[in-house]
Design a protein that fits this description.
Keywords: Coiled coil. By secondary structure, this protein is of the alpha+beta class. The strands form two sheets. Strands 1-4 form a two-stranded antiparallel ribbon. It has a two-stranded antiparallel sheet with strand order 2-3. The relative contact order is 0.07.
Length: 129
């Protein structure tokens, strides 16, 4: 940060009666010097603020990336669990289905009797009665 200062030689100041208190004018503007001073401490403070802002932005980006990865991992796990649950439900539904009830019984009988032809459900009901 640059702090400006004006060095004025007293001999070039002009003050007239109609001027306000604290107001001055110059006879010759070329004799005035403008001196600039550099405030090193303020520059250091600004540089540290900028570096901290960059560090914070990098840390926030890193946290954001980790959060997205974690959310993706959770979605994958949830999808896998849903697929397993759907597969288990399908297997349970197939086990409870009456369509496969008699065919499973027939397969068991086929294992015992190889040469006997399969009976239909109606034939089995008639044999029962």
């Amino acid at each position: 940060m640059i702090i400006g200062g004006v060095i004025i030689i007293r001999s070039i100041c002009q003050k007239t009666g109609d001027m306000a208190v604290g107001q001055v004018s110059f006879h010759n503007d070329k004799k005035t010097k403008v001196e600039r001073q550099v405030d090193h401490e303020q520059e250091r403070i600004e540089r540290v603020k900028e570096e901290n802002a960059v560090r914070r932005a990098a840390a926030a980006a890193k946290v954001r990336i980790q959060s997205l990865r974690y959310q993706l991992l959770l979605k994958r796990k949830q999808k896998k669990a849903d697929a397993e649950l759907a597969k288990a439900r399908e297997a349970e539904k197939a086990a409870r289905s009456y369509d496969t009830l008699f065919s499973a019984a027939d397969e068991d009988e086929d294992d015992e009797e190889e040469g006997v032809p399969k009976k239909s459900v109606r034939e089995m009901e008639e044999d029962f009665m």
